[in-house]
Automatic annotation (TrEMBL):
Stored Gene3D superfamilies: P-loop containing nucleotide triphosphate hydrolases
Record region (Disordered): 1-20
Top-level taxonomic group: Eukaryota
UniProt-recorded name of the protein: Ras- protein Rab-11A
GO molecular function, one term: GTP binding
Organism, as annotated: Orbilia ellipsospora
Coiled coil (UniProt feature): none
Matches recorded under PROSITE patterns: RAB
Pfam families assigned: Ras (PF00071)
C-alpha cells in the first residue's frame, strides 16, 4: 500500500477532537452524497460534520477547512472529516451536495458509498419531495451500475425547532417511509449538532456490516 500523506503532512483534527495522521493502511475512505430541497440544511449538516460547529454566516467554511488540511482539489461543495467508529476503525469521510435536479454523473455513482436524503421537519413539502428523489437516484445509479444497491439514509433536520409547534413532519410517518424503502432514519439538528455525528457513524457502520 502507498504510504503517502496529505499535501501539508500535518495531523488532521477530526470532529472528536483527536489528531490522526492519514495512513491508507488503516484509514478507509467513504463518500456520501447529500440530496434534498433547497433550505433543508444540507450545507449546515455538511459543515457540522466537518467542523462540529454551525456557521450560517460563513458559507465558505467547508472549503477553507479542506484546503487548510491539504485537500487542494476538492470542489467547493465538499468537506473532509475523520471519524472513529465503535469498532475503533478510523474512516475518512467526504461529504458533498448533489444538486437535486442534476443527473448523477457516472464518476459520482462509481465512487459514492451512500447517500443521505435530507428534509426539514418543519416543512412537510420538503418531505413530500423525497420519494420521487429517492426513486430517481436509484434509477440513475442502477442505469450506470446495475449492481448498485447502496445503503441510504433519511434525515430530518431542524429537530431543534419541533418544540415551536406549527405544521411538522410526523416522525412515525418518516420512519415508516424509511423502513419501507430499506433506509436508515435519523432526526438531527445542525444548529446544536444533535444527532449529526451519530447519524454518519450509524450509516458507515451499516455499510461495514454489509461489505
Amino acid at each position: 500500500m502507498s504510504d503517502s500523506k496529505p499535501v501539508e503532512e500535518v495531523p488532521v483534527e477530526n470532529v472528536e477532537g483527536e489528531n490522526v495522521d492519514e495512513d491508507p493502511d488503516w484509514v478507509t475512505l467513504f463518500f456520501v452524497a447529500m440530496l434534498g430541497d433547497d433550505g433543508v440544511g444540507k450545507t449546515a449538516i455538511k459543515n457540522s460534520i466537518a467542523r462540529h460547529i454551525y456557521e450560517p454566516k460563513n458559507p465558505t467554511t467547508s472549503l477553507q477547512y479542506a484546503i487548510k488540511n491539504g485537500e487542494k482539489n476538492l470542489p467547493p461543495d465538499s468537506t473532509i472529516s475523520y471519524l472513529k467508529l465503535d469498532s475503533e476503525k478510523w474512516i475518512r469521510l467526504e461529504v458533498w451536495e448533489q444538486p437535486k435536479d442534476t443527473p448523477i454523473k457516472e464518476y459520482d455513482v462509481l465512487r459514492t458509498s451512500s447517500a443521505m436524503f435530507i428534509y426539514d421537519v418543519t416543512n412537510p413539502k420538503s418531505f413530500e419531495s423525497i420519494p420521487a428523489l429517492v426513486e430517481r437516484v436509484r434509477a440513475d445509479a442502477t442505469r450506470i451500475l446495475p449492481s448498485w444497491n447502496h445503503q441510504l439514509m433519511l434525515v430530518g433536520n431542524k429537530w431543534d425547532l419541533k418544540s415551536q409547534g406549527g405544521e411538522m413532519v410526523c416522525s412515525d410517518k418518516a420512519k415508516a417511509f424509511a423502513d419501507e424503502n430499506g433506509m436508515l432514519f435519523r432526526e438531527v439538528s445542525a444548529v446544536d449538532g444533535t444527532g449529526i455525528k451519530e447519524s454518519f457513524k450509524a450509516l458507515i457502520e451499516s455499510i461495514y456490516e454489509n461489505m
